[in-house]
Prior knowledge:
Number of helices: 2
Distance between the termini: 40 Å
Structural class: alpha+beta
Shape: extended
Amino acid sequence: MKLEEHIFQSASxxxxxxxxxxxMISTPMVSVPPEERISxxxxxSLYYKGDFPLYQKLFEENLELPIYVGKAVLPG
Length: 76
């Protein structure tokens, strides 16, 4: 068996990922904690804006670089 012949590749998956990234970067940022409770599951990203020394270098280099990307899963 040649391993390189068994690598999953899908143009539709790449397109879906592109759509998801476009949606995330076009979604407005809100401060934490948000004014209104966020309900439901989904993917989220955390960005930093402040003067804490450990995050300062990240913030100076790229304002749009998240410091964390995660997902929230509904129970059940």
